[in-house]
Amino acid sequence: MDRYSVLLISVLFFSFSLGITSIDPGKFLQCLKLQSKTGFIPVYTPTSSKFSSIWQSTVHNIRFITSTTLKPEFIILPSNESHVQASVICAKQHGILMKIRSGGHDYEGLSSISDVPFLILDLSNLRSISVDVENKTAWVQSGALLGELYYRIAEKSKTLAFPAGVCPTVGAGGSFSGGGYGTLLRKYGLAADNVIDAQIVDVNGRILDRESMGEDLFWAIRGGSPGSFGVILSWKIRLVNVPPTVTVFRIEKMLRDDPGFTSLVHRWQEVAHNLPQELLIRAAIAPVGTEERRTIKASFISLFLGDSKKLLTVMKQGFPELGLESKDCTEKSWIRSVLWYAGMPDNGTLNDLLNRTQSKRFAKGKSDYVKTPIPVVGLEGAWKLLMKEVRPVMTMHPFRGKMDEIAETEIPYPHRNGTLFQIQYLTIWTEQGSEESERHINWMRKFYEHMATYVSKTPREAYIGYRDIDLGVSKNGTANSLQGSAWGSKYFKSNYKRLVQVKRKVDPENFFRNEQSIPSN
Ligand SMILES: Cc1cc2nc3c(=O)[nH]c(=O)nc-3n(C[C@H](O)[C@H](O)[C@H](O)COP(=O)(O)OP(=O)(O)OC[C@H]3O[C@@H](n4cnc5c(N)ncnc54)[C@H](O)[C@@H]3O)c2cc1C
Ligand SMILES: *[C@@H]1O[C@H](CO)[C@@H](O)[C@H](O)[C@H]1NC(C)=O
Ligand SMILES: *[C@@H]1O[C@H](CO)[C@@H](O)[C@H](O)[C@H]1NC(C)=O
Ligand SMILES: *[C@@H]1O[C@H](CO)[C@@H](O)[C@H](O)[C@H]1NC(C)=O
Ligand SMILES: *[C@@H]1O[C@H](CO)[C@@H](O)[C@H](O)[C@H]1NC(C)=O
Ligand SMILES: *[C@@H]1O[C@H](CO)[C@@H](O)[C@H](O)[C@H]1NC(C)=O
Ligand SMILES: *[C@@H]1O[C@H](CO)[C@@H](O)[C@H](O)[C@H]1NC(C)=O
């Protein structure tokens, strides 16, 4: 970059921070046209009739879309990788903040909104998946959703799978960038642990692969803050083996009916992470019923990589307190277990995994990591608070297994050795309105405060995949690394320092940025 454009960009950053729009739409579109080597680049401006529906199409958390939300100046929908290159070059040239969007599931809506003028680079049309069964690998473009990925793998093999998230409409672009975990975590680790190559468009508009980007950048994009280093075009992933038959079960217990309820949950904390790696038992805790019938329900939701006979033996030995019986168990193919775990209808077809229409909701989420079991008194306090909220859920996902075997510095995702389980807190509501939002968000903050005593400390660790803006922001291009360090160390522990070093090297002007991106100074 020459000195003039560096100067120009700094001037533009400065005017953004003063709230001045300095984008000339005509000139920007002209630039795209000029840069386009492969014909027309699909781009929408607010005057287009399709604009609003495209903008909102994949925003999962609709809390962020209101009548006063700042609209993007442009939405670019690349249909060719060269369109991504052109977008980066032109956005940089014109000093426009670029938000990158793959599946749109960001918990804080960061891929779709901004409080300064911006554009959205939406990758949903770059979603090809090619599965190589012989080599047990696949190339997955960022706009592919997890359901599509699982479907394409199953199309070619009943005994290959990939250890990524549970929700079929989550995007590969954002989720592998932040780690990505699901039912195979204990056996195979994170999605990011199983990325073996990638294609990225860097700040100069070049397409790099693992070899040409170098190991530092390749390290950073596997779990570092998404959107900090470049636009991921595609991932090459290592597929993993699953048996032709797996077994699932769901056992529900009610606090109201069961005097042993809390000690059972407590017992789960002691054993779930110690069970064989082939067995995952999540515990989801939520209030159910209304008024005086209201109580707390614990759902133990499980996937076992093996048949039900073996599972019963394992459970008898490892977690007899749950009382699993053969009538509770259902044997399935792995791909059917994906539908089941995602809560999709049992009589549905595998094609349901290709449905890109997602449910919408108002939500606030947070996360924690637990290193010693939460005492009964802590659990009982949690039940009391859960009862006060409309639709909260606390989902506990056991770790250990493969997660303990991978060094904390292997990739930026650091929540490993010694972690017993992760908790996701989520509260969902259905009415628009800032008062309504505030009430639920306040409840969430109070709940998080209650849990502080019982979870990881200094730092209180958090999962960037469950992005939480309460942990702090790096608001603009000049935020320094110390400001970032509050959320930085929570998400990345000591890996944060190396992420800042990589950022300085590959994007010193901080072109790729969002509210929680790695700062360059
Ligand atoms: C209903 C629901 C279920 C979920 N279930 C799971 C789960 O089971 N396991 C799990 O690990 N997580 C889960 N998540 C969290 C999810 O992994 C993250 O929200 C993830 O960031 C979503 O990726 P996305 O592409 O859909 O989102 P986006 O909103 O498109 O992107 C998220 C972030 O990544 C950046 N980004 C997106 N694409 C790219 C790209 N190509 N290059 C560079 N940066 C990019 C965005 O700018 C944004 O900052 C869930 C989230 C929701 C809402
Ligand atoms: C992108 O365009 C190039 C050049 O025209 C072409 O070779 C390539 O196949 C295109 N890629 C896609 C995904 O369409
Ligand atoms: C498997 O990988 C090898 C080496 O990279 C390659 O030559 C071969 O074509 C691949 N197999 C398939 C089916 O693509
Ligand atoms: C699946 O079952 C539900 C509930 O029993 C029913 O409403 C639905 O029509 C069924 N769908 C199919 C595709 O059979
Ligand atoms: C796709 O999913 C949406 C949301 O879950 C649902 O309303 C719709 O009926 C589904 N479409 C098909 C074709 O199954
Ligand atoms: C995990 O922690 C244990 C106990 O502190 C230690 O012995 C082991 O070396 C650690 N493993 C890794 C991969 O860091
Ligand atoms: C941008 O960051 C600088 C330095 O951290 C800070 O002083 C300034 O207030 C920030 N501007 C905005 C708009 O947040």
TrEMBL record:
Residues 68-242 form the FAD-binding PCMH-type domain. PROSITE patterns: FAD_PCMH. Its cofactor is FAD. Pfam families: BBE (PF08031), FAD_binding_4 (PF01565). SUPFAM superfamilies: FAD-binding/transporter-associated domain-like. Keywords: FAD, Flavoprotein, Glycoprotein, Signal. GO terms for molecular function: FAD binding; oxidoreductase activity. Residues 1-22 form the signal peptide. Belongs to the oxygen-dependent FAD-linked oxidoreductase family. This is FAD-binding PCMH-type domain-containing protein. It comes from Papaver atlanticum.
